[in-house]
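User: Structure please.
Assistant: Input sequence and predicted structure:
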Amino acid sequence: MMKESILEFSFNELKDGLVKNGFKAFRAYQLMGWIYKKFVFDFSKMTDISNREREILAERYSIISLEQIDYVMDAETVKFLFKTSDGNYIESVIIFAPSERDKDERVTLCVSTQIGCALKCDFCATGQLEFKRNLTVSEILSQVLLAEEFLKSRFATRGNSTRNIGNIVFMGMGEPLLNVDNVLKAIYILTFSGGYNIGARHITISTVGIIEGIERLANIPLQVRLAVSLHSPFQHKREKLIPIARKYKLEDLIGALENYQRSTKRRITFEYILIDDFNVSDEEAIELSGLLKNLEYNLNLIEYNPVKNRYYRSPSEDKIKLFTHRLKDLNIPFVIRRRKGEGVFAGCGQLGLYWKNTSFQ
């Protein structure tokens, strides 16, 4: 019998399935606690469940849907290579940053949602890979749980939480809003109070601008954050970087975001990769001011990270200063996100090629 991953089930689905198979309903709470609070992924170690029930669970269900193959790390990041059951590979990244509120580090996990990516963004390493398929709910959740297991083995748990990860960003390999059903179900499971219990406001979904997905997010109760890859206020330049922008025109995208904001009252983040001689002129700054004038937003400026087979480069510090001074003059709210993980190709736009052509036995 093919085992189902228990991670595919929400709490209510798990409870109903267990009751149907003769278990007491409270076993669902226990299982959620073992998996999502204690990060125990072996039924035999769940000691408050009877031996016979543990055997039945192990016969019917698996837990983790990925195998950790390798990892590399530097002072600020840890990048994982995971293998799926059908022999494909994905990457996830832990990012460490000083907390603004206390002395502890802020720990963010960057999660992948697809194997490869069909969108072929010109600046992105993942875009050079063949798109294979969407990740399942259990494969998305396995990235989070395996990252927590890694952190648990190396660091003390932070504060009163059983978690080390404080923020989750769906900014890894793939376009989250082209796998929106599985992404949203994973988020509902992660925010369940009896399990992982992360606040929805600590979760960000990033998109290149899939309008149907944005409309979907406008109508859900979860208060997740939305980030949009903008990279230029000009349609022709966006099309060069993001080919699917030919389908989702800037005018239509901004209209969808204005509707989203009216529905949710939530501020939007725009991601803006700084590319030399491409998108850091006065003209860009002025156009940004007009394009975004009806939105409440933050502009994240990200220095371009080198990608194999691509010939873009980051602007000089002087050019960045000139551009940011112009943004200030125009009252555009921005933050400069300095490079992290560049040495292990864990930075923005770099996932997918580090282990390519490496043989794993």
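Residues 4-62 form a domain with the DNA polymerase; domain 1 fold (CATH 1.10.150.530).
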